Structure formats: structure tokens, C-alpha cells
Amino acid sequence: MTVRPRLVVVGDPAGRRVAFFQDALRTAGLPGARVVSWPDVLHGRARFAAGEIVRIDSPGEDPEADRLLRGVDDPARVEGSGRWYARFTTAVGGLAETAGAAGATLVDDPAELAVLFDKRLSHGRLRAAGVPVPESPTSGPTAPAVAGWADIRALLDVPGLRRMFVKLAHGSSASGVLAVETNGAGRIQATTSVERHPDGRLFNSLRVRRYTTEHEIAAIVDALAPDGLHVERWLPKATQGGRAADLRVVVIDGRATHAVIRTSRSPMTNLHLGGARGDLTAARAAIAAAGGRWEDALGVCERAAAAFPGTRCVGVDLLPATGWRRFAVGEVNAFGDLLPGLTGLPGSGAESLDTYAAQVAAQYPAAVTSPTSPTSASSRTTGTSTT
Q1: Which of 317, 272, 277 is nearest to 297 (CA)?
Q2: CA-to-CA distance for 300 and 314, rounded, in angstroms?
């Protein structure tokens, strides 16, 4: 008799992520997961039982959880990411203790979540592991903190940093990101989705805008700095159809299973900011034409994921350099699997599966009957993916 796992997912009960995961479980013939909401975790009401397997998912779609974590009433506000990080990591640590005391098991390592949600720590770990990353003066736990615009202004004089990204250390979905650049004459401009109101409050906008005065840019950076900032070199990206291009690659249990190319006319390729899915087949052809290999690009993502061995699924932001010959890792995302309708790469063993079904198949292979089976990495050189 097959023993069915008793599953729990911590997330937004009404959110897309939980719905996709539940669908994947049902399709695999597994019982649905018991759902614990983030507000219950944050209020100390979460309880677990011996033998339960607990998956931690993003609190990002739950307005009440966002309010409790960031301490702001308007979800469009940018400020509060430092508070979010402190409360989130404390909550995850408490959740791990509660689950462990009850005899439940967490799918992922809570300590790694604390690193993944700090871009400075994550960047430092990737660099120490030999993963190619953009140059950064804020990388690692001993790097100096950015106190405000004066620090950023000084860094713009450093060779290689005349074009830089300034990011919230604990931000996500391009919240608070500024692409800052200066020319030889000292003129500074910043491209960002941050909208600054006359009273100084900052809001996320769906419209990417450009600030062209140092006074405006300094005011935004000084308002963001208390939450913690990460700075990295703005690498020139490869293009597709005249648009800047990068890739989100999902790595499950050490293997790259899904990939989507994102293109944009702005420095931010996020789909909610006007980015669009590009042509993955054309990107693979461009890599081959440049003398590169697709499996080497995926290998960079797998090396990045290997720096976080306690996290079973991550989304890696892969930055192809101009000409499609070299690659760097921009970020590794703990909750980077929300890619609706995307099925797996050829040769990945997840060809017919979306990102959630692939995670279920990896964790419970005996419960999943897939028309494909994992093959060697060399098979990734053929075929196309559906995006």
C-alpha cells in the first residue's frame, strides 16, 4: 500500500501560486495540501503535525501579509522592504521551530531563504562559488553599506560603474530598482518604475520613467537607503528584435527544467513593466551562431542553484552579454517559479510539465507518471520549448 504524503503549503490560500500547486498535486493523483496562510504564521497561529511536509511559498499576493510584513497600508508603496525582510526571516525561523517541534519537515532550508532575500548576501555567495556575476561594491556580508546618494555618486566615478543598477537589498519584482548612468560630462539620469510624490513618498508604477536631474535621483536614493541598497554594474545585454533580453531559468533539484526569454525596451525586463516573452528558439540559435553552447548557459544557472543546496527550486535570472557569447547571473529567486503555461525544456524530464508539476514530479516520482524521463544534459542541444 502506497503511503500518501501529508502536505502543507504556507502561502496565500486565494493566490495563484497555491492554486497552481494544488492543481499539480491533483493531476499527479496526490491529495491536496493543507494551506496555512501567512497572516496565521505572522500572528503565531500556525500549527503542524508529525509527518507533515511543509512547503513555504511566497507571501507576495496576500495584501494582509504584505501589510503585516512591511508596515504600510498601501501595497503600491515602495518603502518597507527592510522591515519586510526582518519580519519575514523571523517568521520563517519561528515556523521552522514550530514545525520541527511537531515532527513536521520543511521542504527548503530557512537559513538559505535569509540569504536569497538579501541581494548583497546572495551575490557574495554566488561570487564565492565562482558563478559569474556583475561587479558589485556591496557584495558579501562585510561590504560597506550604502548610506545614501553621496555614496552612489562617488561610485559613479569608479571605472566600470558609470552605468549601474541600484536595487533594494530585499526587493522583488523590480520594486525600487534604478538603472543609473552618467556620461563623460557628468550628466546623470536614472530609469526606474519608482514614482516620487511631491510629499516624498515613493510608489511602484507600471510605467517606467526617466529622471534626468541629480536632485530627483538623489531624493529617491536617499529615501530608499534606510531599507538597504545593493549596487552592481549594469552589464550590456544581448538583444532580440532590437530589445534588451535576459532569461529566467527554473532549476529544480539541481537541473535546469524551464526557461523563458524576456525582452524589453527599458533596462527592466519584468513582464509587468512592459517586458514581453521573446523567442527562445531564436536565442538558442544566436548562442550557437556566436560559437557558444546552450547547455553551457544552462550550466551557469545550475551552478548558481548549487550555491543554495538546501533550496529545491529556484528561478535564476541569466544575463546574456552582447553577442550572446558570455553569461552572468543577475539574481537567484527563491520564489521564481510563477511562469504560467510554460512547460519544460527538451531533455529535462519535464517536457510536458509546468514548473509546479515538475516540482511535484521531482519530490514524489513514484506518484507521477510522466510521458518523458530525465535524460543526460547533452540532450538539451536539440528541440524547442513551448513558451
Answers
A1: 317
A2: 13
Instruction: Tell me the chain's radius of gyration from C-alpha atoms.
Output: 21
**Average pLDDT of 332-337?**
97
pLDDT reported for residue 367: 62
CB 195 within 8 A of CB 202: yes
**Going along the chain, which residue ranges are E strands?**
6-11, 34-37, 52-56, 105-106, 163-168, 178-182, 188-196, 202-211, 229-233, 239-240, 243-252, 255-264, 276-277, 313-320, 327-333
For 308, the grid coordinates are 543554495
Give how far Cα 9 sits from Cα of 98, 100, 139, 289, Å.
Answer: 15, 15, 32, 44
Neighbours of 251 (CB within 10 A): 27
Asked if 306 and 129 touch (Cβ cutoff 8 Å), the reply is yes
State which of 3-7, 75-79, 306-310 shows the largest mean pLDDT.
306-310
> 140 Cβ partners below 8 Å, 6+ apart?
120, 121, 123, 124, 127, 128
Q: Show the CA angle centred on residue 149, arms to residues 148 and 154, nearest 5°.
A: 110
Distance in angstroms (rounded) separating the CA atoms of residues 183 and 372: 52
CB 384 within 8 A of CB 280: yes
Residue 353 CA to residue 364 CA, distance in Å, equals 14
**pLDDT over 80 (residue 126):** yes
> What mean pLDDT, rounded, does the chain reach?
92
Neighbours of 184 (CB within 10 A): 6
DSSP 321: B
Classify the phi-psi angles of 272: left when phi > 0, otherwise alpha if psi is within -120 to 50, otherwise beta. Answer: alpha
Element (H, E) at 304: helix 294-306
Q: Please say whether the beta carbons of 385 and 280 come within 8 A.
A: yes
Q: Which residues pair with 164 in a beta bridge?
A: 180, 233
Q: Using an 8 Å Cβ cutoff, are 213 and 157 in contact?
A: no
